[in-house]
Amino acid sequence: MQGIALGVSIAAPVGPIGILCIQRTLARGRRAGFVSGLGAASADAVYAAIAGFGLTALSSILLDHQTGIRLVGGLFLVYLGLQSFRAEPTTGGESTGTQTDRTTAEHQTLARDYASTFLLTLTNPVTILAFVGIFAGLGVGLSGTYVDAAVLVVGVTTGSALWWFLLSTGVSLFRTRFTRPVLRRVNQLAGVVIGGFGVFVLVGLL
Predict the structure, then answer these.
(1) What is the distance between the alpha carbons of residues 192 and 55, in angstroms, rounded to a whole number?
(2) Where do the structural domains in the chain lie, given as residue ranges?
(3) Rounded to the nearest 5 degrees, what angle is found at the Cα of 60, between the Cα atoms of 58 and 64?
(4) Which region holds residue 43: left if phi is over 0, alpha if psi is between -120 and 50, else beta?
């Protein structure tokens, strides 16, 4: 339960990933939002595993190169912001082509949704330090066992995924209440905010 609570607490604060999840849910439905959240949950699992299993060499490499990694993350946020700003909301029944073509296109889009949030979350290696501190307080890491670490990492992943499921499901309930012009404005607002996060990261590196 500690791991699940930790996963929820890490995923819940509103940031660029949360805004992306909300925007994609409103624009393309619950599945797009949830898959986007799973990308972030997977990246959290990677960093939790690095901290939990005491992979100090790998964490040192990531932290030593965090400036370059965060630069990539900032530029990626600006790119995602532009994408969100230009995105057109979709509604049921407007797809063209065969069922197979539509299914293939949807799977490819979901794969991009997952990959984008996974890579974006990985561009913040400082997360490792947060996990190290939290795990140390819980007695996990260098002083704990691999079983303890594995249980906590699984819990973190489960808690994070649970949060993204609840968020995407809750937001999807309001999707049908918005008209297409309103959804387009939501995309534009989300794009500005996400791009703003990217600019903030880039300015912080100066």
Answers:
(1) 37
(2) 2-204
(3) 120
(4) alpha
